[in-house]
Fold this sequence. Notes:
Elements: E1 18-20, H1 29-37, E2 42-45, H2 58-76, E3 85-90, H3 98-107, E4 112-116, H4 121-129, E5 133-138, H5 141-149, E6 154-158, H6 171-179, E7 186-189, H7 195-204, E8 208-211, H8 225-233, E9 239-242, E10 250-253, H9 254-259, H10 306-328
Amino acid sequence: MNEPRNLPPVLQGLRIPAVAAPLFIVSCPDLVIAQCKAGIVGSFPALNAREAPGDPIMLEIWLKQITEELDRHNQANPDRPAAPFAVNQIVHRSNERLERDLEICARWKVPIWITSLGARPEVNEAAHSCGGIALHDIINNTFAHKAIEKGADGLIAVAAGAGGHAGPQSPFALIREIREWFDGPLLLSGSIATGEALLAACVLGADLGYIGSAFVATKEANAVPDYKQMLVECGAEDITTSTLFTGISGNYLKPSIARAGFDPENLPEADPSSMNFKDGSKKPKAWSEVWGSGQGIGAIKSVVSAGEVVDRIEQEYRAAHARLAAMAV
């Protein structure tokens, strides 16, 4: 299949046009390595690499592990090299580690940088200083313009149906508005859990799909077994959207909210000045107690390896492409 338009070399030659989304808490070196070996871009949030004061710098350890293992794989498999990896930086002012983590990622020459919660030129400059590219996630056309104006190389359109902090807009509207003025790298996030959805994203005008929730229910993911099993058992109707848990609109699994002791159909009001509810009760922790998920989880039938997820999506993608080609005859 033809390479998408105007993609930098680091995003070309993938097995399928897909990037694995960085999943807070869940993404770890084992998952990233498995995703890259399977032929798609693997990623993790820098903040997942946690350490206590006085401990070795975990981000350094993770980057060394991922880089060296992918290098070993590539030397042993020159005809089937691994895809590159990406690191997600939360660039909000509350991230006290940002400056340190930028220096570490630049030193390790991270090839793909994903930025979230604010577009900052100095972060894009750090990516470019080591030959990397910067992709910024956005939820509307206004934020897309700002990201490119501040030096991002590409965009991740987070549309309705995405897991975690999802945008409210239909991908049909969001991708079209961005493509009216931007011809660079464009990824789409929002229920991309099947090969059919991946092909549809490309037909809409995205270059690559951004796949998240399907990788939570994998053997390599750093998620508790109950979280993985809940994804297997749930579907789109089991997702609710709320700003309650983090102050930003997000999609969460209703059964996890119920497990935390709350009615997902009748959530209490939050006190914006504190981490508690207005009635004084303690708010459950997003991601560790209340679990995020996108609406595409109906495609998840069992807990499998990350490689098996990519295998399935590739088979579905190529079959869908063949059907589409037959319809055009």
